[in-house]
Amino acid sequence: MWSEITTPEMLDAGLWPRCAAIAERYWSPREVNDVDDMYRCLDSIDSLLTALGTNQYANRKRMLARIAPQDPAPLETLASGVEPIKFLGHWHNMRGGLQPDQNTLADAAPPESLVARRFCEDVHALLKASNIDKELAKRLSDELEQWQSNHALLLRSVGPLPNWQAVIETSADLRDLATIGLDALRFVATKQKPGKEWADTADRVLKKQQKFADASAHYPDFTHPPAQPGSEILIAILPGIQELTRAAEQGGD
Q1: Which secondary-structure segment (H or E) carries 36?
Q2: Which sequence spans correspond to the domains of the chain?
């Protein structure tokens, strides 16, 4: 946590998963470097940490409820698929003297979204198989539909949120990505190639999010900061949507 600015409510989310990852590295032989297996272990440890009393999930719910007290559920759905911008970008933009009642969505979002990572892993597993796994495809479709429909629900929760317009834009971007994902999933299942108009739209939406991801991939030059989303959060399901889109554009070939 060195050099990061946090409130007490943000501490458990940033500290304990990282400690588990460090333990996995130092307690393993040098030749063990299976990242996927590390995340498998992290899933179990994450549940164990919560059972032992860490508050990363309870605190996140409190922060989101404080941001949108009238109906935090849509904000929780949005937070499940996003992460704060990287390399201290959010730290640089945080307000001086941050108080516990001044949280933004970027404060409450998980440092790394395990929900988004599992989604991307499921997409890869679906596309790698020789035949479409209908149960897995249904699970992916259900997740995408939830993210797609969430934007309309979020708009009903509009209130005096910090940086609210930027949150709305990110929510709309998540809706657009989910829509592309649903279309691509259908194209893959039917082995049909999308038309040029769909491909152009998908390309435009994906490039916008990739630009944000690229800007967050390196330690920023704070004198000339790269363009970042105003909400200071990245949509973490982007790699999965990109993989689905590539598969759809290949069609039945």
Answers
A1: helix 35-52
A2: 70-250
Q: What is the DSSP string of 91-114?
A: HHHSPTT--TT---HHHHS-SS-H
Name the 3-class secondary structure at 125: helix
Q: Which helix (H) or strand (E) holds 82?
A: strand 82-84
pTM: 0.89
The alpha-carbon radius of gyration of the chain (Å, integer) is 19
Task: Give me the helices (H) in 68-163, please.
Answer: 73-80, 89-93, 105-108, 114-128, 134-155
In angstroms, rounded to a whole number, what is the distance separating the alpha carbons of residues 14 and 1? 7
CA distances from 97 to 6, 15, 68, 233 (A): 10, 21, 22, 21
Residue with tokens 């640089």: 92
**Cα–Cα distance measured from residue 53 to residue 36, given in angstroms and rounded to the nearest whole number:** 26
Would you state the pLDDT for residue 100? 46
**Nearest in space to 231 (alpha carbons), one of 216, 246, 219:** 216
153 contacts: CB under 8 Å, gap ≥ 6: 71, 73, 74, 77
Q: Sort residue 150 into left (φ over 0), alpha (ψ -120 to 50) or beta.
A: alpha
Q: What is the CATH number of domain 70-250?
A: 1.20.58
Distance CA 99, CA 119 (A): 33
Q: Which amino acid is at 201?
A: T
- Report pLDDT for 163: 63
Q: Write the pLDDT tens digit of every residue in 76-129.
A: 999 999 999 887 677 655 554 445 456 788 888 998 999 999 999 999 999 999
